[in-house]
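Sample entry (456 residues):
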Amino acid sequence: MLKSVEPDSGTITDTVRPVRRWRIIGRGALQFLLMIAVLTGSVIAMNRLIETRPEKSSRPAFRTVYSIDAQTVELVDQRPSINVFGQVVAARSVELRSLVGGEIIAVNDAAKAGARVEEGALLVEIDPFNYQGALVEAKSNLEQTEATISEIQARLVAERDQKAAAEEQLELARSDLQRATSLRKSGSVTQKQLDDRALLVSQREQAVNQRENNVRIEQARLAQQRAAAQRLAWKVTQAERNLTDTKLTAPFSGIVQSKSAEIGRMVNSNDVVLSLYADRELEARFTLTDAQYGRVATDRDPLIGRRIKAVWTVGGVDYVYSGDVVRIAAEIVSDRGGVEIYAHLDENDGPVQLRPGAFLEISVPDRKYTAAARLPETALYDSNQVYLVTEGALQSRKVQVAAYDGNDIIVTDGLESGDQVMTTRLSKVSNGLPVNVNTLVPAAGGVDAPASSLSD
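Predicted structure, serialized as tokens:
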């Protein structure tokens, strides 16, 4: 048998392994050397570029110029407005009270809260039965007294006539006594006849005195009855008035505020049955502070008679009303620190009628400032300083602010006509700050808009 001879496998393997290991080590070393060469070349190239780059020139610095808005000062008469809040009140209102007591027998159907009634309209009527009877009785008593007066006057006339007759008889008796006295000296008349005539004179004197007393008595009775007649005449007038007061009428045209009168209700004298206010005589009541009142009170133009504008906002719509200041409250409102002012509101036929209690925004003309400037409030710094634009730079100027009018200020001192005042609000501002004033150019839609002008 033939057998193949195979080489020793262990000897070959031991020879291949060292060769492969040296190949791997050589390849790694080669890659490392290649990386070192690339890095070294990169560093050399970068240094070469840095050394050979052109020298960069420095950019010159530019000065910052602010673009602002400015306004040219014009010194004219200025009258700002005082804007306050007020309330509508009724200049004329009344609580209608029952002047007599009794049962209500009629009520006007139109006499309801919120309804309008005309002057003279019958509102409430009270049962007049008792007052009609009182009037009849008062008239009867007066007529009876007047009849008694007529009777006394007739007796007085008779007494005076009888007194005149008694005086004539007395004169005759005295004449007869005088003749008898003369005849007694001659003996033609006896003493008894003389005494009889003297007695007759005495009787006639007593009769005259009696008539005089009767006249005085009748005169006294007449005076008493006349006094009674005056008292009864007043009773008649009172009864007539009470009868008239059973009908309560509207003293003026207006709106019914409240009503408590119902048919069948018993009311006493002085009970409130209805309240009414004149809707054509409304006023705006508002309060001016002490400072505001002090300004307008010392103005040449009086506060009374100044026109005001009032705005009532209802349903998101502003309704404008006008009026005149008519009076100033008699006392200072201590709890609010001011003076109450009342202005009569003109009648307005607008779609919404004013009602008492409505809340108003009121504009009242303030005092007039002569030779004053009006500027936006944004032009004011530190409450008393503005900045003028002079040769492209800002220059501070102290001013005196006399009043504020909305978003404007009224300056009375420190400015001259033609001065150009910055109206833009800057966070940092100082003297000498370079500025460029915006100019107005036509914008789309026909509205002027400021052009941007940042210069170098």
